[in-house]
Amino acid sequence: MAVIPVELAGRSYEVRVAAGLLADLPQQCSPRLRKRRVPVITDANVFAAWGAAVEHALHEGGHEAAWRVLPAGEPTKSWEQLAQTTDWLLAEEVERGDAVLALGGGVIGDLTGFAAAILKRGCQFIQLPTTLLAQVDSSVGGKTAINTAAGKNLIGAFHQPALVLADLAVLDTLPARELKAGYAEVVKYGLLGDADFFAWCDQNGAALLAGDAGLREYAVAYSVAAKARIVAADERETLGLRALLNLGHTFGHALEAQTGFSDRLLHGEAVALGMVLAARFSAARGLLPRASAEHVARHFAALDMPSEIATLALNCDGHALTAHMLHDKKMDAGALPFVLLKGLGEAFLAKDVALEEVASFLDEQLRR
Ligand code: NAD
Ligand code: GLY
Fold first, then answer.
1. Widest distance between CA atoms in the chain
2. Average pLDDT of the segment spanning 103-130
3. Do the domains 2-173 and 176-366 sit in the same CATH topology, yes or no?
4. Does any ligand 1 atom lie closer than 6 A to the CB of residue 174?
5. For the chain, what is the mean pLDDT?
6. Phi then psi dihedrals of residue 315, to 5 deg
7. Would you list the domain boundaries of the chain?
8. pLDDT digits over 153-206, tens only?
């Protein structure tokens, strides 16, 4: 088992990565499960795949699961589900010192984390991430949020989990498309800060996606350790370091918005495309060799992942995409910082990018 500490004054916690952690749930969570009834929030797909196993593990430890099973999918991150979930936690008589379990992908982790942040001004929660994306990114670092009519993740709080248990066995039931979407966030850690890890992804990405257990463990543990270092240094994203985790996200967010945040383009797929665009835009600005930018595109194409926005048939121009960026929550005094690359493994925050320049660049990309 890999154990990665997230060091935060007074709020440090561990991320444990191994196959079989859910089967050992009560012991792993000890001593945080104080009551017999343990609140577990999940979605319908995860409940179908892993509900019985979690129920059994809790029962073996002398507990009983109190289930809240939400619809799967992004619309669950809503005011309505937040209100109903907090009402449910109150009805379950959850106290500040109790731990609420979030069993699911980023949707369940973000909603449960936010509910925990505001319940009685903050109660504990434990992340049990069940997607690759949640294991390597969303379950670590304490960003919690819901979506509103004005946009995604605009209402939320920083609220760190008490513990994260990334059970690699749950990835066996994850649809292949979701696994690939999560893999984009793994590659992100290489592109933003470690050329050797990007080279490792080049070598091992296909086998990892095909199910090699050792490679999965290495990739998840590496990614969590990379994220933990960044979160420990810049928890609230105020120092320009945590912002590097947004590599590919500003371009990707515009693509997600243009496709209606729908199954047409998953978040991780948008991030993969966004990283290709960030690399090509960096090359267009003379920061990165063009060959390096095309290396990023080839990496994803070789794994049958989206790498060209022209194939999305977006039916819009570059200005339509930059219009979505105007609503980005990273907007600062009317300017949008972009994470760009001056090398594979060398990301930096550029604050001098005009959206007009981005729109022209995207026009070219849409025609490729
Ligand atoms: P998700 O939670 O919607 O899960 C994807 C799909 O996989 C769902 O249909 C789910 O039911 C299913 N699923 C999950 N685990 C499964 C399993 N083991 N077996 C079978 N099916 C399973 O999506 P996601 O990609 O995990 O997360 C996306 C969300 O995460 C977005 O809302 C995004 O904004 C958020 N996010 C948050 C952060 C953060 O730092 N808080 C970071 C990145 C993304
Ligand atoms: N997913 C980006 C962050 O946690 O900051």
1. 62
2. 98
3. no
4. yes
5. 97
6. 60, 45
7. 2-173, 176-366
8. 999 999 999 999 999 999 999 999 999 999 999 999 999 999 999 999 999 999
Q: Are 329 and 152 in contact (CB under 8 A)?
A: no
* CB-based contacts of 263, cutoff 8 Å, min separation 6: none
Residues with CB under 6 A from ligand 2: 137, 141, 143, 242, 245
CATH number of 2-173: 3.40.50.1970
- Strands in 163-167's sheet, in edge-to-edge order, are 2-6, 13-18, 163-167, 124-129, 99-104, 37-43, 64-70
Q: H or E stretch including 66?
A: strand 64-70
Atom of ligand 2 nearest to the CA of 185: 1
Q: What is d(CA 189, CA 199) in angstroms, rounded to the nearest whole number?
A: 11
Question: What distance in angstroms lies between residue 57's CA and the mean position of ligand 2's atoms?
Answer: 31
What one-character DSSP code corresponds to residue 136?
Answer: I
State the pLDDT confidence band at 327, using cuts at 50, 70 and 90: confident
pLDDT at residue 284, as a whole number? 98
SS3 assignment, position 342: strand
Mean pLDDT along residues 114-121: 98
What fold does the segment set 176-366 form as a domain?
Dehydroquinate synthase-like, alpha domain (1.20.1090)
Look at residue 151 in the predicted model and tell me its pLDDT: 85
Q: How many helices (H) and strands (E) does the chain have?
A: 13, 11
Q: Work out which ligand 1 atom sits closest to the CA atom of 171.
A: 18
131 lines ligand 1 (CB under 6 A): yes
Q: Is the pLDDT of residue 295 over 80?
A: yes
Judged by DSSP in three states, 203 sits in helix
Task: Calculate mean pLDDT across residues 244-250.
Answer: 97
Reference 303, options 181, 221, 216, 188; nearest CA is 181
Cα–Cα distance measured from residue 7 to residue 50, given in angstroms and rounded to the nearest whole number: 30
151-158 and 143-148 beta bridge pairing: antiparallel
Enter the DSSP assignment of 134: I
> Would you state the pLDDT for residue 326?
86
